[in-house]
TrEMBL record:
Basic and acidic residues composition bias: residue spans: 507-516, 607-617
Coiled coil: 536-603
Organism: Syntrophorhabdus aromaticivorans
Record keywords: ATP-binding, Coiled coil, Nucleotide-binding, Repeat
Name of this protein: ABC-F family ATP-binding cassette domain-containing protein
Pfam families: ABC_tran, ABC_tran_Xtn
Amino acid sequence: MLSVANLSKSYGNQVIFDGVSFAVNPCERVGLVGRNGSGKTTLFRLILGQEEYDSGTITIPKRYRVGHLSQHVRFKGKTVLKEATLEMPVHEDGTDEAFRAKKILLGLGFTSKDFDRDPLELSGGFQVRLSLARVLVSEPNLLLLDEPTNYLDIVSVRWLIQFLKAWRNELILITHDRNFMDSAVTHTMGIHRTKIKKIAGSTHKLYEQILQEEEVYEQTRVNEEKKRAEAEEFINRFRAQANRAKAVQSRIKMLEKMGKLEKMTEHNGLDFQFRAAPFHGKWLLEAENVSFSFDHGSTPLVDGLSFAIRKKDRIGVIGKNGKGKTTLFNLLAGELFPLGGRIAVHQNVKLAYFGQTNIDRLDPGRTVEEEILGVRQDFSRNAARNICGAMMFDGDKALKRVAVLSGGEKSRVLLGKLLVSPSNLLLLDEPTNHLDMESIDSLVEAIDVFPGAVVIVTHSEMILNAVAKKLIVFDKGKATLFHGTYRDFLERVGWDDEEKAEPSPATDRERDKSGVGRKELKRLRAEFIQTRSKILGPLERKMSALENTIVGLEEKINEENQSLMRATTMGEGKSIAALSISIHEARNNIERFFDELEILTRTHNARSKELEEKWSELSRSAPPGEDR
């Protein structure tokens, strides 16, 4: 076990830890939370001996191995598999550890073809994954993981959650993904106001306790301030009266014993809203049969994808890394052009695009304030400072140059630039990678109240469940539109190559009380998927056709409105009459088609719910441990 007692650490005048104590007991999996800059990574460095602490003790037993995910990648193995097994422990039971290493590599997104590759040939993201695989294979007594999901895709994140839930040794985990943390840990430990508090349970439970304790503290402080003020008033009033001298001395002694509770400093977090540009149409963007690849001879990243974006749509874009999610965003933003199909953007669309690669577009020589001001020439310095403050660059922090900012601070600058110009379509590509939990909560709230459309790429299942109502899924070698939430997707479709549950020792002939065995459950699931496709497929095709028809009519109205303006200018009476009738009919048709679309949507949702309930009944009859 790890034991920390009365630990203190400062950088100059900045106190990070002030006499903190805690222990990580056998088999505990601990989530470490705290605002950015509170000292989470510093604590890891102190435990690993990479930094010196000012006072206190960190006690680690002899032969107690501490493993960690290093962001500085160094490889010694000649192949991916050899690198993964470098620190592999030897088990007396003869367990095939090479098999275990392969299983971990596959879970983290490698293929069997990658096992013999030179690690130096891998992309930066997969090199970090290989480092993670190596430390997982090594089975340390204490595993330290600092943001392990930053380089993982959504499928690998789901795998890692299950792996860590089965971790038999100790673990301290830092992650901004609340769902990931709460799913994997048994305890939560928070760094708050230079102290550390540890509880059994989730992040929600920890923050709830901290909030209650601070409310009690503040109420106590207010009450004591009131008592102090009353005592001081009594002393000042009766100090000169001899007959009150004893009472006055009593009040003076009481004040000396009371001490004084200091008012807690306010902790600022992201507090902002996206500025909305007006949009009066129904559809902002339509993608029809879009295809794209960087090399004409290669397999397309996007092939025959069709979808439309409505005014208040919330669309999640999901899939493995490198499959085309960011490429799709670049196509929608007009930074790339499709090789096939078309992307039609409404003339009144005001698009705002946040992407991790856009960090490179920041000018290192500029200050935060100058980056905000550079977006719009008519933006005042006072307004820019307000945006800087909302992004936690208050006061002189707004004068920091981009060159000295951390990755998280640069992400906040990009978010700030997004807020300067009004928009009605937000493209957000992994906006939470460098945000802490409180900032992510603020971002989700800002998305929720934004009146325009939002399309978001994220590997966070928490954000997908909170935000997305439709999905664009990169899986099975293609990109497809899915009508439904992320929970709907997992229940109805699931990931193509997600690792299935291990077979139970029971044979397929064995059954539980309900009489449903493993093979039979698989057969029933296949039949269910086929039935669902037959019932919902025609409805989804009709919905898609209606959406395309409505978009076409709106384009026709736009064209005829321009023709009507020209005819009015020229005084062409017959053309004015004909165009007015045509526009009126098109608008009536749009309303009629929207009514039909609404009916189809309700029918689709009702049928989908019925099918889900039937499948739930079947899956509940599966033996314990079956893959549902």
